[in-house]
User: What shape does this take?
Amino acid sequence: MAIRGQDIASVIKRQIEEFGGELTLVDVGTVVEAADGVATIHGLSDVRSMELLQFPGGTLGMALNLEEDSVGAVILGEFAHIKEGDEVRSTGRIVEVPVGDALIGRVVDPLGRPLDGKGPINATETSPVEQVAPNVVVRKSVSTPMQFGLKVVDGLIPVGRGQRELIIGDRNTGKTSMCIDAIINQKGGDVVAIYVAIGQKVGKVAATVATLEAHGAMDHTIVISASASDPAPVQYLAPYAGAAMAEKVMYSGKDALIVYDDLTKHAWAYRQMSLLLRRPPGREAYPGDVFYLHSRLLERSARLDDEHGGGSSTALPIIETQAGDVSAYVPTNVISITDGQIYLEPELFNAGIRPALNAGLSVSRVGSAAQTKAMKGVAGRLKGELAQYRELATFAQFGTDDLDPATRRQLERGQRATELMKQVEVNPLTMEQQVSIFYLLGSGTLDDIPPASIVNFERGWHEYAAANVPNVLKGIADSGELSDEAGKALDEAAVGYKSTAQL
Amino acid sequence: MAGRPTARRYAQAVFQIALENDALDQWSSDLDQIAEALGDSDFFAFLEAPQVPERVKLQGIDTVLVGVSGLARNLVGVLVDHRSVRFAVNVRDQYGALLDRHRGVARATVTTALPLTDEQRGRVRDLLGELVGAKVDATEDVDPQIVGGIIARVGDHLIDGSVTTKLRNMKNALARPPAQLKRD
Assistant: This one.
């Protein structure tokens, strides 16, 4: 970054001219108690909620509890040097972050300060982290797909732009990977992705950034990191800062995809803050407004109507469950706020089915409206069939000999469908590729392929189709429909492929 | 600071009594006297001690607080009864604040690098009075550390016109990246 001499000179000139000029009236208070990153301040009679406060030594704080006689504030950063009797000044600024295109490709903290060593962020605009969600009048229902590039999501649990889809599961079930896949799949598209890491290990965040960089996905991505070593108030702010950046994208008529990884740790950070601020604890020691904490955040994701630019902000909150307990306090809250959930199971994960999505418990409440006609046609019934297969499969463990042919056929199809849903990390498929393979499943082309060979078959098929029937694929991509002729062409290509394939 | 709201309630009650009886100044000096008496740690401990019967405490109050009005003596009695003697100093301060507000007086602390001249003092007082909309009663403080200019504090408001602060602001502004410089 080059600091231009002209800038400095002009600033100094102005400063000299204005020296001794304007006097500012600020609110001040005195620290009466400071401990654990929380300070009680006497005075500050005109301070506003969420206003930034200036502690000695340049440390910033945020006013939260406005009481009759004192103000409870959290300290954003180093707090060891703050002691009783210190003077605190109000800044007149509500907590805000820089927003806009300058942040794309950067890794920042929840106050928008760079963490990646790539120099200052040249953002020209800022936005308050807390904002009221778009109202009813400016919204529109979800109508465009947000492709993950994952067959199991795009086929079974489609997510639309402006939707809030929860990703829930135990630790180590592929929650983050799924979201990273979704971000990488937006490469070359018009979507700005925002990845918010809350309370994670710094090493894990670094690995995630490295993955995104390796796949060229940082060019459309902003990473906000509040790591496990950051104070709880900083972690608390992170998702709201991300939402503010996503809103900027949305209001400028573009599409944003925001991943909150994860809201369980966010709730923990808020619980810590609330307890230290002596707010009364409720269930599981969370404060009374822990529902509002997440509902107001997720409500900020929306699809705007064309009059208001038609932008959108799609939210993928992540919740980590303990031992599969989805009925804990925070998971149930977030499940009830979102428009559906993707449930990842350790059993499936360990059985080698990755993504380990449980088709029976996962649902997308609005996304199917956003599916293309072609996808709806080939994958519409798949979710039900898979869920049925799971039930039958448990039952059929005791032997399939006595089953009637229809049931056996269903089992065979289900086995192949399950195999087909497997997909390795960072290997996104386009919509037309997914449609073509789902079409082959539905048409029965895969019925004579042994389940163990399905993965190989599929890999070869995508290569073969790209080489031999590119026009058909392009037709599906352009029109979003699968015509009868296209179907026939795929059938023919499948016959040709099967004759050459080494399975 | 737990006692502050409590002390305010007592101060409000006292202030109303004083207003009704038109004895604002009398109460002011009574409260000063009470606060001073309670500054004596022996007397304070005596009033706080749970093992001393209340009757004895009231007698003690009568002995020590000679010259205060009957109602002021009653206030101490009530504080003893409520086990709130420790708030007495706060009550005095809060009463002072209420009295100031009633009379439209604002207390200010003015810090300068050099002592103010009479002419400057008058100007500062007028200016501050205009700003806060009240008569200003200023205490002065000299601190060469601020280099020049003036820092005035009225209640919770601070007007910082010191040279040190300006220099610091300038330093911060220069340390910022160019894009942010251009913005402001």
User: Anything to note?
Assistant: Chain A has a mean pLDDT of 91. Chain A has three domains: 28-94, 97-371, 377-500. Residues 232-251 of chain A form the longest helix (20 residues). Residues 72 and 183 of chain A are 39 Å apart (CA to CA).
